[in-house]
Amino acid sequence: MGFLKEFKEFAVKGNVVDLAVAVIIGGAFGKIVASFVKDIVMPPIGVLLGGVEFTDLAIVLKETSIGPAGEELGPVLLTYGIFIQNVVDFVIIALVIFIAVKGINNMKKKEAAAPTPPPPALSKSEVLLEEIRDLLKK
């Protein structure tokens, strides 16, 4: 029974839930960035480079290959264009995360630097009570 109690405490801790939410949002964010790079960034770059589609860039290592049953499998390719696409995805994701973390850190600095408001002024009766307290202490 102790194991289940410990597991429950572990599973419902804020850090575990926060991590799960972060992983889910990160996966969705990764899809958005991958689509942004593939559908928005790379086509203009391909046009600038003479109509090249990066995912189609490859080096043929062997024209045809034969499978275990003797069937022809097609060419063996080194698809470096897909690698370039993934590198661009990574750079954009890293840049966005850097900007987000920098913004969050700046907001934290502003909160820490915000001056605390001065305490409200004491009324005449509060001042008199403090004087009486001080006199009684003597």
Automatic annotation (TrEMBL):
<comment type="subunit">
    <text>Homopentamer.</text>
</comment>
<keyword id="KW-0812">Transmembrane</keyword>
<keyword id="KW-1003">Cell membrane</keyword>
<dbReference type="InterPro" id="IPR037673">
    <property type="entry name" value="MSC/AndL"/>
</dbReference>
<dbReference type="InterPro" id="IPR019823">
    <property type="entry name" value="Mechanosensitive_channel_CS"/>
</dbReference>
<comment type="function">
    <text>Channel that opens in response to stretch forces in the membrane lipid bilayer. May participate in the regulation of osmotic pressure changes within the cell.</text>
</comment>
<comment type="similarity">
    <text>Belongs to the MscL family.</text>
</comment>
<dbReference type="InterPro" id="IPR001185">
    <property type="entry name" value="MS_channel"/>
</dbReference>
<feature type="transmembrane region" description="Helical">
    <location>
        <begin position="77"/>
        <end position="101"/>
    </location>
</feature>
<keyword id="KW-1133">Transmembrane helix</keyword>
<dbReference type="GO" id="GO:0005886">
    <property type="term" value="C:plasma membrane"/>
</dbReference>
<dbReference type="Pfam" id="PF01741">
    <property type="entry name" value="MscL"/>
</dbReference>
<dbReference type="GO" id="GO:0008381">
    <property type="term" value="F:mechanosensitive monoatomic ion channel activity"/>
</dbReference>
<keyword id="KW-0472">Membrane</keyword>
<protein>
    <recommendedName>
        <fullName>Large-conductance mechanosensitive channel</fullName>
    </recommendedName>
</protein>
<keyword id="KW-0406">Ion transport</keyword>
<keyword id="KW-0407">Ion channel</keyword>
<dbReference type="InterPro" id="IPR036019">
    <property type="entry name" value="MscL_channel"/>
</dbReference>
<feature type="transmembrane region" description="Helical">
    <location>
        <begin position="12"/>
        <end position="34"/>
    </location>
</feature>
<keyword id="KW-0813">Transport</keyword>
